[in-house]
Design goal:
561 residues; mainly alpha; elongated
Length: 561
């Protein structure tokens, strides 16, 4: 081959690799979007059962087609305190098995079966999927399915282009001779680590190695060590995402790295006498299947070996990543959200709801403290209320920033509607905090002027507070469970608050005429009633937001007697 031919062939190989990687991403992102609710459901079931964790990790990775993406999700979950390190470790076991699904798909499809050219058939899916995307703009689900099919096709288009390029290289004795000289296992292992770290995908590395091996450029023993090294190289994504996170999040990324490093060490030591290359070449006939089975068997074997020692692995990780002092412990932070979790939009939407519910709880706690301060004419809780008010303002600002980022990701139509309403929901919650702060100031004013509400006023405030408590619990349930069918019941409580506010105004006039209440105390009393009525309106707004993205759930019928 001339120098110019080599240059063009390299460009072609790069183009094929790029199409392959983009096809994987398109298929994985679309599968994730279509299966978003199922993914949320799987992660919500995580407990301390390691086999369940392995199954969830395997299933999620098989859908997303990226162990790095799932591990990044785990980093975000552990950082938010939604998952323990031990739970995350079992999921990581599953992700390492799940990531081999792509290699299996490529291996059994690339080259075809007998006279059937599966590569050409699968590659045609790119066109079929593209037409589905173009002509079904108004049907979100069909469009996503088209993207999945298109992504699958692009994987094989990329493989075909890479295969043609590698075939040309394979025809050059000089190039084959040059590659054959690279046979040091440690060097091949390092090549696998470095190149996979650069492209950040062990599946893409598998595709490249499969085409090189099928073209005869490298032998299976060479390919074996490169693939084993790729398992370590793929950890770079999680390690980078763990920068700037909490200690446990860093430990999660470290568990992913240790899993693969330990697996590689065991493999390299046992290969000295087991000679895995000979075994696999004896068991499987084609290079691509040999490589795919190596990738799968390596990860399955590592899980089997490490599963009984999970607790020791976690303890070792804690030892090498110790807890560090938190110099900014007083600073506010999001509890459930981080930029890392944006790599999995459906999970980000689920965590967004958790963050909003957390903000809602903080606002309600402020309201309870404020009403107690007003009733008791006490300013003791003012400091805590002011701090929580700053926290609510912070959450409002940061959640809004996160919403902007989340809106730019590929999410389902239902999730997009939820995100759109979330802007107003966090604003409603922030306003509840503002009214709570007003009510707390009434308590401080009463204490300052040595005044108190009358016993009748206190009873009326208690009745109003009890109604708000019921509204809060019902609103929280509606928002958490996406059940707008409960809104009519909420409306009844809202009407009760309107009636109580009107009644409190009438009672205040009576007390003024009887001389049992003064005008200044009465003004604070009426302002408190008005603030509570507006808080009830904001509760209703939060519940009404679910109408845009949730459907009314059938209520269980009462059993007939």
């Amino acid at each position: 081959m001339s120098g110019l031919e080599i240059f063009y062939t390299i460009l072609s190989a790069i183009a094929g690799l790029g199409v392959f990687i983009f096809g994987m991403k398109l298929m994985g992102d679309s599968l994730e979007s279509v299966s978003g609710n199922r993914i949320k459901g799987m992660f919500s079931k995580i407990d301390n059962n390691p086999f369940l964790g392995i199954g969830i990790g395997l299933g999620t990775t098989a859908v997303i087609q990226s162990s790095s993406a799932v591990t990044v999700m785990l980093v975000g979950f552990v950082n938010a305190g939604l998952m323990t390190l031990t739970q995350a470790t079992s999921v990581i076991y599953g992700t390492n098995i799940g990531t081999t699904v792509t290699a299996q798909l490529v291996a059994w499809g690339y080259g075809g079966i007998a006279s059937l050219d599966l590569t050409a058939i699968f590659a045609a899916c790119a066109g079929v999927g593209a037409f589905m995307i173009l002509f079904t703009q108004k049907h979100d689900v069909v469009k996503k399915i088209g993207a999945i099919i298109c992504g699958l096709g692009m994987i094989f288009v990329g493989l075909s282009v890479m295969g043609d390029s590698m075939g040309k290289f394979g025809e050059s004795p000089a190039i084959v001779s040059a590659f054959s000289k690279v046979n040091n296992p440690a060097l091949l292992l390092l090549l696998g680590i470095v190149f996979t770290a650069i492209i950040q995908s062990s599946s893409a590395m598998s595709g490249l190695v499969i085409t090189m091996s099928a073209a005869g450029i490298i032998s299976f023993p060479q390919a074996m060590y490169i693939i084993i090294g790729s398992n370590i190289g793929t950890c770079i994504t999680a390690l980078l995402c763990a920068i700037g996170t909490g200690t446990n999040a860093k430990r999660t990324a470290m568990v992913h790295l240790l899993f693969n490093v330990i697996g590689v060490i065991i493999f390299m030591l046992t290969d000295l006498f087991a000679h895995y290359d000979r075994l696999l070449m004896r068991w499987f006939s084609t290079p691509q299947v040999q490589i795919a089975m190596l990738h799968t068997l390596f990860n399955v074997a590592t899980v089997i070996i490490l599963l009984p020692f999970t607790k020791l692995l976690v303890k070792f990780t804690v030892l090498i990543v110790p807890e560090r002092a938190k110099p900014n412990i007083g600073e506010f932070r999001l509890k459930y959200l981080s930029d890392q979790i944006l790599t999995a939009p459906p999970i980000a939407v689920a965590n967004l709801k958790l963050e909003i519910l957390n903000m809602f709880e903080i606002a309600k706690n402020n309201l309870d403290t404020a009403l107690a301060a007003a009733v008791n004419a006490d300013a003791g809780g003012i400091a805590a209320i002011e701090r929580n008010e700053k926290l609510l303002n912070y959450l409002n600002r940061e959640i809004t920033k996160f919403l902007v980022k989340l809106s730019g990701t590929d999410i389902s139509a239902q999730d997009a509607n939820m995100v759109a309403t979330a802007y107003h929901t966090v604003s409603d919650i922030e306003r509840i905090g503002d009214y709570a702060e007003n009510i707390a100031e009434y308590g401080a004013k009463l204490k300052e002027d040595n005044m108190k509400f009358s016993e009748e006023s206190v009873k009326e405030i208690a009745e109003l507070n009890a109604t708000l408590d019921k509204m809060y619990e019902l609103t929280r349930r509606i928002y958490k469970e996406d059940d707008p069918g409960l809104i009519p019941e909420l409306y009844e409580y809202e009407q009760t608050t309107d009636n109580l506010k009107a009644l409190m105004g009438e009672k205040h006039i009576e007390r003024l005429s009887q001389g049992t209440c003064n005008a200044e105390t009465g003004a604070l009393y009426l302002s408190l009633a008005s603030d509570c009525e507006r808080i009830a309106d904001h509760f209703t707004n939060i519940a009404n937001a679910t109408k845009s993205y949730a459907t009314v759930k059938p209520q269980p019928q009462e059993q007939k007697k």
